[in-house]
Amino acid sequence: MADQYDYDLFTIGAGSGGVRASRVAAAHGARVAVAEEYRVGGTCVIRGCVPKKMLVYGAHFAEDLEDAKAFGWTIEGKSFDWAALRDAVQNDVTRLEGLYGETLSNHDVTVLNEHARITGDHQITLASGKIVTARYILIATGARPFIPDFRGNEHVITSNEAFHLDAIPRRILIAGGGYIANEFAGIFNEFGSKVTLANRSDTILRGYDESVRDRLLQISLTKGIEYCFMAEFEYVEKQDDGSLRVKLTGQDERIFDVVMVATGRVPNIEGLGLETIGVECGKRGEIVVDTFSRTNVDYVYALGDVTDRVQLTPVAIREGQAFADSVFGEVEPYAVDHSCVPSAVFSHPPIAAVGMTEGEARNTLGSVKVYQADFRPMKNVVAGRNERSLYKMIVDAATDRIVGIHMIGPEAPEIMQAAAVAVKAGLTKADFDATVAIHPTMAEELVLFK
Ligand SMILES: Cc1cc2nc3c(=O)[nH]c(=O)nc-3n(C[C@H](O)[C@H](O)[C@H](O)COP(=O)(O)OP(=O)(O)OC[C@H]3O[C@@H](n4cnc5c(N)ncnc54)[C@H](O)[C@@H]3O)c2cc1C
Ligand SMILES: NC(=O)c1ccc[n+]([C@@H]2O[C@H](COP(=O)([O-])OP(=O)(O)OC[C@H]3O[C@@H](n4cnc5c(N)ncnc54)[C@H](O)[C@@H]3O)[C@@H](O)[C@H]2O)c1
């Protein structure tokens, strides 16, 4: 490529999508620089999937240690040290951040640890004032927590701060009914907080299968999590002792030690200079792209959460790979297939899903067969834990093709990853029936549906 620009590619944001795109573009021979204003690794590594999953592991010991008694173990003097877990998690996050940085430099990607904004055609200005030019610009700036507008919202925290708390709150209110709210409700509940989850609608986890959502609600209530539905913030007031007085619609004033909002995430486009070159954004601030992650400006691409297609790390990574291969590789440009993306909620117990819910299938397909296994895992039986798993398979009656699988129960995300291959490949219920079970497992229920 001609050297009229400083770089062939300038990536803004070194998160899941930006790191993959930069590394692969460099491997294809491009001269690449990436700007990161916070920490290399982005949301997933620094304050998302990775530290969250570590907290989920740490939290679940509360149940495992309890259940251990029924298996003959005596555990005396058990106690939990939040600071020890928090610091162990942060140490590993720092280790991973270093590895991501190393991967980039091993591929000769220049990493600039500062804010970047577009200031002209093919031109980027860094916080330090340095100006660089690039043939292509990739916007991979992710998203940030959305905080609703109400009096006293400066007193709330988001998932960003939840990883760094000084102590586990005695009483925590979590607003929202999505992934983050349900995952952190589970985490804090296992750590012994009194958790109240408040949502503005009357459901949780919209988009997941109704019976699976109901099962999580029922199990969470049994574990002591309290739910307030149709509840929005009126105000939050800080009291002299540091606690928070909260008024939600339809509720009396309540006192909490921490209020966390998990009410969705908004694309990071502020201060990016998109207007300078006329990059088009949608109503929610998302950068509008086509299936190849191209914006309306021919040399500007965008991918990951900032495009608000599917806000998941593996999707951002695939979009980064497809962009780099298509623009800098020797392949025909190709697009990421956003259909049939498996997902999980790391609640206690976790949920996992792929494909259509029963409701979606009934609305879109003519005739649908639903197979269901509602069972108490062997470990829960011995432990005396009255917690049932639910697996559902949704089948197109006309073709016998499996169009969806939905699960709640221990290790559901681990089991789902393999099952999702079968659904994506278009396998039939008969294919599952023809597969011999692995006994005794929970996963065998998937090939034993009657
Ligand atoms: C609490 C939490 C838990 C999650 N758990 C999961 C999970 O279990 N599984 C899953 O698949 N997904 C999960 N996600 C979602 C996942 O983290 C995101 O989908 C993913 O990180 C998106 O990648 P990205 O590359 O689009 O953006 P990001 O990873 O957010 O990276 C964007 C980067 O750009 C930087 N940046 C922004 N603006 C600028 C600028 N102007 N100049 C320089 N740098 C800039 C930011 O600092 C950031 O590092 C979770 C998210 C959260 C918040
Ligand atoms: N396990 C995972 O894969 C995982 C985990 C965490 C986050 N994520 C990703 O991050 C994204 C953000 O997570 P999230 O939980 O913040 O969002 P979400 O979209 O899952 O849920 C947002 C919730 O906030 C509520 N809400 C929205 N606006 C509101 C308002 N003004 N007032 C009150 N409530 C409001 C919604 O009703 C909904 O229940 C998710 O969409 C997901 O893609 C994934």
TrEMBL record:
Which cofactor(s) does the record list? FAD
Q: Which cysteines are joined by disulfide bonds?
A: C44-C49
- Every Pyridine nucleotide-disulphide oxidoreductase dimerisation domain range: 341-447
Is Flavoprotein among this UniProt entry's keywords? yes
Q: Where is the FAD/NAD(P)-binding domain?
A: 8-320
List the active-site residues: H439
GO MF terms held by the record:
flavin adenine dinucleotide binding; glutathione-disulfide reductase (NADPH) activity
Keywords in alphabetical order, please.
Disulfide bond, FAD, Flavoprotein, NAD, Nucleotide-binding, Oxidoreductase, Redox-active center
Question: What PROSITE patterns does the record point to?
Answer: PYRIDINE_REDOX_1
Pfam assignment, any one: Pyr_redox_dim
Sorted alphabetically, the Gene Ontology BP terms of this entry are: cell redox homeostasis; cellular response to oxidative stress; glutathione metabolic process
Q: Does the keyword Mitochondrion apply?
A: no
What positions does the entry give for NAD(+) binding? Answer: G176, G177, G178, Y179, I180, A181, N182, E183, G264, D305
Q: Which family does it belong to?
A: Belongs to the class-I pyridine nucleotide-disulfide oxidoreductase family.
| Name of protein | NADPH-glutathione reductase
